[in-house]
Amino acid sequence: MQKLLQKLPAPVRYIIFVYGIGMLIFSAFRILLLSLHTSELKEIPGLVIFHSLLMGLRFDAVINGYLLIAPLFIFFLFSFFNTRTERIAGIISAFIVIEYTISFFAHVADIRWFGHGAARLTVSILQWTDTPGWMLKFIFQDISNYPFLILFFVLIYLFYRLIKKIRVASFDGQNKEISFVRSIPVYLVLLALMFVGIRGRIALKSPIRWGTAFFSPYNFTNQLGLNPVYTFIRSWLDKKENKDVRYNFMSDIDAGKIVRRNLGIENYDESVSPVARQVASHGTAHNYNVVLVLMESMSAKNMGHFGNPENLTPVLDSLYDHSISFTNFYSDGNHTFNGIYSSLYGFHSLPMVHHMKDLAHQQPYNGLPGTLLENGYSTTFFTTHDEQFDNMAGFLLPNGFENLISEKDYDRKEVLSTLGVPDHVMFGRVIREMSEIKKRPFFSAMISGSNHEPLVIPENIEFKAHAQGLEEQMVEYADWAIGKFLKDASAQPWFDSTIFVFTGDHGGLTPGFDNYLAFHHLPFIIYAPKIFPEPMQIHSVGGQADIFATVCGLLNLSYVNNSMGIDLLNAQRIFYPFNYDEELCCVSTENYFSISHGHERFYTLAADKKSMIEVGKTSTSDSMKVFLEAAIQTTQRMIEERKMK
Fold this sequence. Notes:
- This protein is α/β, with parallel strands linked by helices.
- It contains 19 helices and 16 strands.
- The strands form 3 sheets. Strands 2, 3, 4, 5, 6, 7, 8, 9 and 10 form a 9-stranded mixed β-sheet that branches. Strands 12-13-14-15-16 form a 5-stranded antiparallel β-sheet, covered by helices on one side. A two-stranded antiparallel sheet has the order 1-11.
- Strand 13 (583-587) and strand 14 (591-596) form a beta hairpin.
- Helix 2 (10-36) packs antiparallel against helix 6, helix 4 (86-117) packs antiparallel against helix 6 (146-171) and helix 15 packs parallel to helix 16 (470-489).
- The radius of gyration is 28 Å and the shape is elongated.
């Protein structure tokens, strides 16, 4: 082998060695990811895992090809001028080190990204680059990031030293016997092989797509076969290509009809929007106070009621038994801004769109805060951290909220991380602020933050953790903070006339549960022991976009429901649509449907809601697809026509 390599032009030997090193390092990252998620492998056959690793080599070859084809082509061009290529090898080596440094950083970031969302790196990670200070704090305040940062810097140093040695070994005493004429075929063959590697397939019709990796019913092995550099670049290109592309599944008129039929809308005011309908109450309105708590990353799968055996949420489990509670409730997306937007204003999030930041969505919204403000309520939003994160202040204050309490309003000593103050500190501030309001009912909405990296358990408080892992301990703390909040609130004169609504902004990964269900299946609890003393469980499907109409129904308000939500206590859904970044999803009480990069999948949900079983398409899957597309297109139309209020 060594003799054969010596017969090749020095630049070709150099590129081959670098290519091999790149493949080894990319594979090592894949093995590292595999080793960090061994719990995912219990139900996956060994052959499927092996197939996934082989698939990974194909995607790694794509990225290595893209990284090295330009250097190889430059070497090839210089060979025409009979130039000693070692003279430019130093410049090309520096370029290669920079390329791979960026690629290695993507791989390191992907490990943490995958741990949070069970998906490879995409352009979604850039949604917070407009707040670089916050993003850097987020990275460096979380000590669990440090091993990966150290790995990155050590790897770059070793890679630089290795590239230097390979360059010296390849070009030192460059082989002069190889004539220009003999070297041309060698270059052409290697360029052709690299081009095939970039395409990922021999078939001429289409190059490799990331859907190629989705060969099994197991999300983990499907994702494992991908390369994060590939998924990031592909998602960035897709977003750029689709930036001005309009969803056009059907005519807008047909989309509106399908949405109205599924939501049970009989009389609507087209001059307002395709879904605007007047809701007339019977009798007088109830001026109950409303407290809406969006709990950070609080998946239903954390609760004992939904099969978690670790007793992490005794408070929420107890509330579930003494409240109006929902068994099939889902988030509208997988980010906090999705949860805030949909829960407050009753609209579905469009895929890969940040409705609270994008300029196209800076238009009047009414929703729950605006409707309650019009009905004489005081409206305040609380967050534990910086109000500029996700453009919270910029979006919420013009759209129904009179006040916003954020990190700047707390004592600096209480701020523990980039996520601001601990949950119990925010809840204490909520009670103080609400107790000062006189002569008006109040609406307080809030987003907690402690159950999110960086994970910091406050010291010198009554809370004592029982779980072993820090992630589970944070769930325990978040639950404890809810209990303390309700205990303190019960001592206030306004407690008996207050409706408390608890749900998550989105879920989170939970061992033993299917990723999709864990990330979107939420608790939804309406607690008001003096107002609704009899507990009730609702089993029909619903989601965050329904909170607006459901709360207005509890208050017996007459209002215009210009939203994609329904009153879950007085109507029933068949399907609920949502998205997971680029992936469009729809769920019912028994089925789950998704469209991801052209690939449609249909599942039945296990009775315990722990897993999904992929099945063939049926009339139900067709109906879910049509409603999902209609809901997305109608939402898009309302945004374009500025009919969100």
